[in-house]
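User: Can you model how 2-deoxy-2-amino glucitol-6-phosphate sits in this protein?
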Amino acid sequence: MCGIVGAVRNSDASGFLLEGLRRLEYRGYDSAGVVIINQDGDLERARTVGKVAELEHALNQAPLMGMTGIAHTRWATHGGVTEPNAHPHICNGTLALVCNGIVENHETLRQKQHEAGLAFTSQTDTEVVVHQVYLHLQKGLDLADAVRATMKELEGSFALAVVHAGEPDRLVAARQGPPLLLGRTDDESFIASDINALLPVTRQYQVLENGDVVDLRGANCLIKDRTGVVVDRLVRTSSQSGDSADLGEYRHFMQKEIHEQPRAVADTLEGRLRGDQVLEDSFGREATRIFDATRQVCIIACGTSYHAGLVARHWLEYVGVPCEVEVASEYRYRRHASREGTLVVTISQSGETADTLAALEEAKRQGVAGSLVVCNVPESSLVRESDLAFMTHCGPEIGVASTKTFVSAMTGLLLLALALSRRRGFDSGFEAHVVHQIRTLPAALESALGMETAIANMAQAFGDKQNALFLGRGAHFPIAMEGALKLKEISYIHAEAYAAGELKHGPLALVDERMPVVAVAPNDLLIEKLKSNLEEVRARGGRLYLFADPASGLIESEDVQVLHVAPVDSAIAPIIYTVPLQLLSYHVALIKGTDVDKPRNLAKSVTVE
Ligand code: AGP
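Assistant: Here's the modeled complex, given as structure tokens:
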């Protein structure tokens, strides 16, 4: 989602700004732009629709040079994907601003600004913000004070950065919602939406808090809170690698990340198991106390992370822990009957999902025994806001479609179920059995990756399809949901998942010889039930594409294609059966020729609601 970078340097800032935008590309965007204050003290702007490479091309044709600048990747919310709507927005030729988020009262402000004689060149809510700062400057306020005054008038959730032609060594930035980080070296200062953009210049950073306004003047940076009081924010050191991500032998980051899963899960498990046991401090220092107080679990997440939560419910309920799983965007606006002893668990690869953050805040307001996040980004907001954190340690995920973070999050949630099982009377033999299975995960994932060639062949059947159904039962219903989401996201084929037993209650009407039906069929307690459901599909002429345990008894025929998944214990089967569905969607997307790593309209880090 939108990304901001800015710099006050003592040499040309354009290289840093462009590299910063490249490093924020993975978040998802549809246009990009930059403003630099040149040596004559004028604002110079370049904006392009499409990839950062387009902007780079434009800058190669007409370079911008200057020591202070701001840049932005835009993910359209208000107004179409056009160059006039791309940021930075400029008012009066002197003031330039970029913004991430949504300003809810933009219509009211726009009306007043019209009346004040200001003209608009875009349909965005951001242009209203730059006008508002300008109006305060006109009243004689200093730039930082003008930004603070503007923040008080804006409703919504946003982060912004602004430069003024009259003050070429200065940049002012502010946060009221989406994250904004400040980085400094001995004589320069930088802002960015996430740490990836700062890494080429520094690992040290400060996280602005809501209401903060920071005034950057080279090495001198002053942070004031919403009341105008000077504050200091903790200086953190990033543990992330500064290397820009490298595709290696792979065609896409998604393919690379699917293949990294054995290593990612091994890294997730590193230091988390001792002998036959899960180490509780993998979840944080307070884990034992909070787990002792836990009577039930409420999992809150979005998208793929929500699917990980749905799988975890099966594990938690198996060990006797009541569990509900909530979509964050719904949870945050619903009335709740809070229950004593609830451990609220958020799941988020980015740690920045606005709905999940707001839902966590709402859950904490209700009163909880504790909060735990399962997350891949140590420096993220959800990690900071939670009592406990289980870090998945799978390295940066660049593909917008989550893959390795999904299997690693499920692995972490299985460890959580084991940690809580001890308090539900499950003996050490049970934990030892599951831990043994967990240790086989990297090898079992590797074995599932060996199916790729066969899956690429299977994918041919989907090249001309507009729709697909995905079926599963029990803990594999969420895996089918995830398979359908992956196919939708990257191949743009309409795909829906159903609990296989639900077919006859409606979706069976969709089935005919043109409808591919994908099912995951591990050899578990529900296999015979699933087989009956699959027969219902065959009887209506549906085409079946099955990922099945060899012992399931499912056999190939003209209308049934079966690919065998090596036998796995049911405790870890959902994690393993994820892989063939990821590979299927990837190979269908290759056939469709879509932008696999940056699918249209989507963002990696969803920082607006
Ligand atoms: C996953 O492929 C999707 N891009 C999306 O559903 C994602 O899982 C969702 O937006 C939640 O993101 P998070 O894990 O960063 O919170």
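A couple of observations from the model: The radius of gyration is 26 Å. DSSP finds 20 helices and 27 strands in the chain.
User: Helpful, thanks.
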